[in-house]
Amino acid sequence: MSHLFCFGFGFTAHRLAKKLRADGWSVSGTARTAEKCAVLRDAGFACQEFDGSSSLEDVSDLKNATHILLSAPPGEQGDPVLLRHRNDLAENGNLQWIGYLSATSVYGDTGGALVDEMAALKATTARGLRRIESEKAWLELGREHELPVHVFRLAGIYGPGRSAIDQLRSGKARRIIKEGHLFSRIHVDDIVNVLLASIAAPRPGGTYNVCDDEPAMSSDVMEYAAESLGLEPPPAIPFTSTSLSEMARSFYADNRLVDNSLIKSELGVTLTYPDFRVGLKAILAERG
User: Fold this and answer.
1) Which CATH superfamily groups domain 3-159+186-212+255-272?
2) Which of 36, 97, 115, 116 could disulfide-pair with 31, CB 3.0 to 4.6 Å?
3) What are the structural domain ranges in the chain?
């Protein structure tokens, strides 16, 4: 039986896990806290705590896995999975696919120019630089031990429970205006579709940009979500406003457009949600 082990059972991993379990796979993984593990166990998934501070107590699932999904972010000390379980992975002779979820932040600021998977990695933020190092380390492990490592550079993720619609309903929405600053994004279920396509046709060492077809200003997305709900959009906050935190500003540090043609030409993916409007309509229809 095919067995997926997820290091980091978050938003994307959970959606992929439910899809594969419905297809007869065995799925297990990790979460950072006992509370999150309890929720996952209640949903029928075997789960262990793992925050990178120590190794897994039981590595039997990891050693028996045929597929590995890596969504735990790197920390200041490096990639937590590589730090604790590099040898376990290298010694697993069952592995047919490893997917590392990275981010388009590795490209840094291009001044709005388009980047494909061959573009130079010019991140300057701490998050982006750590991602670059993790990508390199995973690909190196793959080459060294002939492991089927794949890298997926994800744009901003949204989906049911995690969208502009949900922010508006919770009262936490903000409409930050920075004219001409476009963000790429991707619906979580399209990420799942890309991962499934890669699992079906592995190319060890492959790297893929994962985003939709229409980058857009975050304020445009928020305005569309408000209109869909019949609400007034939140007050406009100029990017120059002193009320913005450094964390909020950091998300606007880089401006780039991301080329997603490889997931279509090589993996044969057709996006279910090619732009934010289609995605938000589906979320609204699903959640009411």
Assistant:
1) NAD(P)-binding Rossmann-like Domain (3.40.50.720)
2) 36
3) 3-159+186-212+255-272
- The pLDDT-based confidence of 41 (bands split at 50, 70, 90) is very high
How many angstroms separate the CA atoms of 16 and 195, rounded? 8
Q: What is the token pair recorded at 212?
A: 């939709």
**28, pLDDT greater than 70:** yes
Q: What does the pLDDT read at residue 236?
A: 87
179-212 b/e (C-beta count within 10 Å ≥ 16 → b): eebbbbbbbbbbbbbbbbbbbeebeeebbbbbbb
Q: Provide the mean pLDDT of the chain.
A: 94
